[in-house]
Amino acid sequence: MSTRVTKSLPFLVAPAEPTPAGNLLVTAMDSALASLSMTALFVFEQPINQPAEIVRQALSRALVPYYPIAGRLAAGAHGATIACTGEGVAFAAGLAGCTLQDARLADARPAIPVEELTLSYAGQHTKDRPLLLMQVTEFACGGFVVGVTWDHVVTDGVGMAQFLNAVGELARGFTSPDVVPVRLDRSLPDLPPPIISMTKSLVSSPHNDFPSTYITVPLSFINRIKAEFRRSGQEDGMAAPAAYSAFEVFTAAIWKCRARATIAGAADKDAPTALAFTANVRKPAGAKDGYYGNLFAFGLAVATLIEVANGDVLDLVKLVKDAKARVPYTFVDGAAYIAGEMGGRLQGLRPYDILYVTSWWNLGFDDVDFGGGGAVRVMGNMERKVVPACILCGRKDKKDGVAAMAMCVKEEHKEAFHAEIARLR
Q1: What pLDDT does 237 receive?
Q2: C-alpha neighbours within 13 Å on the C-beta side of residue 144
Q3: Active site residue 322
Q4: Pairing relation of β-strands 79-83 and 72-76?
């Protein structure tokens, strides 16, 4: 079977009905993320009739309540705005000459690269680029993949999951989305300046051609580290220590694997290295239900390269857990820890010495359903890779282990990185 993907020329899908016009003010966080794109791919094994047309029609209807997504980024007197023009989003239909199994999308070397299943901003030869691009690709087995790329200025992962669930509901026959969307919430507190500064620093880093590979940390390793933590707590006489989460263990393990893969060529093994991860702060911010603007903060952990590479993974998990524990106090202490580290030992840190992790668990991506049930796999990608990154996605039930799309090492370190992951047992 041919693994070639043929696709239509992209065209615009506009809202199905007239929508309000005008300029929508964006937050400082929205503005800091402008022109940074994210990509999510949803792999559906169960066929539905004419998936591209079903999704296109539902997308057009969803853009009525979510009309800012059909607009364009514009410059206003007081900074960036979203011009609610109703021009629409880019859409393409694709056809693959093989089955999903033949495509091997979760392999280290897939037969069809994820880039073939998405539209890219690099291919949008227009001055005012759409805020969202979507491609629906049908496979010979009847399954299909929905690839969604969006400009981060318009929404974060939580908001995009909310929007795509709305598209799915309309595709399944709902008369309107279950959640009423809110894009402007004037009651929200401003995110602390260190969060905005850190975002700008990450986004403004130069593009790097980090190869994208799908990785899996086996559950046997996750469970072993959890068990070791429980035993260490009992030996130390701790009273019912809080358990480590799969996210904490995975993140610490990847941080360590990456450090071990890159340390040989490091100029200074005692130099600091940072781990940053995103956290949804809608609850502590008091956001209205349905708010889909960018509203997240960072957890930050810092250690020297040699401490991460050669240290006990339990110590690294503790650093991750401590960083998570600081997130709920973002609005209380003004992200003081992040301000202190950025103004201290992280000053002048090279972008390659940062590992950025974002988790798509519990955002709602696993619930997206266009009529044949949820996706068997959710995958992530970034068109412009600014810092080494991992996107936790994979299967909701983690049956295959904890999976992620890794874009976190240079080509020269890729083999060593995968060898380190293979040692996790």
Answers
A1: 56
A2: 26
A3: no
A4: antiparallel
Contact between 161 and 178 (Cβ < 8 Å): no
Residues lower than pLDDT 70 in the chain: 1, 123-126, 233-241, 394-397
How would DSSP label each residue in 186-249? TTPPPPPHHHHHHHHHHHTSPP--PPPEEEEE-HHHHHHHHHHHHHHHHHTT-SSPPPPPHHHH
Burial class (CB in 10 A: 0-12, 13-18, 19+), 244: buried
Residue 243: predicted pLDDT: 84
Least Cα distance to 243 among 222, 229, 255 occurs for 229
> Is residue 399 a contact partner of residue 366, using CB atoms and an 8 Å limit?
no
Q: Decide: helix, strand or coil at residue 377.
A: strand
> Residue 183 — φ and ψ, nearest 5°?
-105, -25
pLDDT digits (tens, 9 = 90+) for 198-222: 999 999 988 888 999 999 999 999 9
Answer yes or no: 30 catalytic: no
Shortest CA distance to 201 belongs to which of 324, 339, 75?
A: 339
Helix (H, G, I), strand (E, B) or coil at 164: helix
Partners of 253 in the beta sheet?
Answer: none
Question: How many angstroms separate the CA atoms of 93 and 168, rounded?
Answer: 17
Catalytic residue among 30, 152, 366, 413: 152
CA distance 320 to 362: 19
Tokens found for residue 362:
């519990």
Task: Provide the pLDDT for residue 107.
Answer: 87
End-to-end CA distance of the chain: 36
- Angle between helix 219-235 and 246-262 (nearest 10): 100
Set 151, 156, 353, 369: catalytic member: 369
Integer Cα distance of 169 and 376 in angstroms: 18
CA 356/CA 300 separation, integer angstroms: 9
Q: DSSP assignment of 71-82, as one string?
A: SEEEEETTEEEE
Crossing angle of helices 246-262 and 411-422, rounded to 10°: 130
How far apart CA 133 and CA 130 sit, in angstroms, is: 7
> What pLDDT sits at residue 300?
97
Q: What was the pLDDT predicted at 82?
A: 96
Q: For residue 195, what are the contacts with CB-CB under 8 A and spacing of at least 6?
A: 29, 297, 298, 330, 335, 338
Distance, CA of 382 to CA of 18 (rounded, Å):
32
Q: Are 325 and 280 spatial neighbours (Cβ–Cβ below 8 Å)?
A: no
